[in-house]
Specification:
Layout (H helix, E strand, L loop, with lengths): L10 H6 L8 E6 L5 E5 L6 E6 L2 H13 L3 E6 L8 H6 L5 E3 L15 E6 L15 E7 L4 H9 L2 E4 L4 H10 L17 E6 L2 E6 L4 H7 L6
Parallel strand pairs: 3-7, 3-8, 4-5, 4-6, 6-7
Antiparallel strand pairs: 1-2, 8-9, 9-10
């Protein structure tokens, strides 16, 4: 990975934004006790993630996925939201491709995962097949829309920024999380995300790095 100025990204900084030895853990941020909150974005089995929040969080999530070696394919109604991300982040514009039509016929493996980003409201996300190891769909919705609800129905995990309490209860129920545990989502600051997975909810302060602040600006919910 390279910096915006074209200099190689140091191993320390790469680690700070999400790498681990197995290339499966993406660092979302720090919990209340200062512990690392990790999202298992890539796994030996196909993985489905629903993100309900702003473009700021979506871009940072994809940026950190690139640090894990991901090839990213984006379906979007607005290419400007993703233009140049691959080139700026890793010096290779081909690492983030905007695509249309069917899913790309590409294999993935540990260390070389594939992330399919769905950034189109009103369209159902294509589903992964049982043999799609190390491939993940990331469905992005600003609010709890029909597209988000469809994604939640099959999601292995959800990333959620601030939302109304009733919506948080719905999301928690779809992920098998105690609704009372999701009550804090209503008052989350812009730089905090809730991870709902494995029957629990964890709050993470995203704490963007300097380069992430340069690229994506201040934390936002819009």
């Amino acid at each position: 990975m390279v910096t915006r100025a074209g200099q190689p990204l140091s191993p320390a900084l790469a680690g700070a934004i999400g790498m681990n030895a197995e290339h499966t853990g993406l660092l979302l941020g720090r919990g209340a006790e200062g512990d690392a909150v990790l999202l298992r974005l890539f796994r030996p089995q196909p993985t489905r993630i629903a993100l309900i929040g702003g473009l700021w969080l979506a871009r940072i999530t994809v940026f950190r996925a690139l640090a894990l070696g991901a090839q990213v394919f984006v379906r979007t109604s607005d290419e400007r939201r993703w233009h140049g991300l691959g080139e700026v982040a890793v010096g290779n514009p081909e690492r983030v491709r905007v695509v249309t039509g069917g899913r790309p016929n590409i294999a993935a493996r540990v260390g070389d995962p594939v992330l399919h980003v769905h950034d189109v409201e009103g369209q159902r996300v294509f589903d992964l097949q049982p043999g799609d190891a190390w491939q993940t769909t990331l469905t992005i919705s600003a609010q709890l829309t029909d597209t988000a609800a469809d994604a939640l129905a099959v999601a292995d995990a959800a990333l959620v920024q601030r939302m109304w309490a009733q919506q948080a209860v719905y999301v928690a129920a779809r992920l098998g999380v105690d609704p009372e545990a999701a009550s804090e989502v209503e008052n989350l600051p812009d730089d905090t995300v809730a991870l709902l997975s494995d029957g629990q909810v964890r709050l993470a302060w995203v704490s963007p790095t300097d380069i992430e602040q340069q690229m994506f600006g201040v934390p936002g919910r819009l």
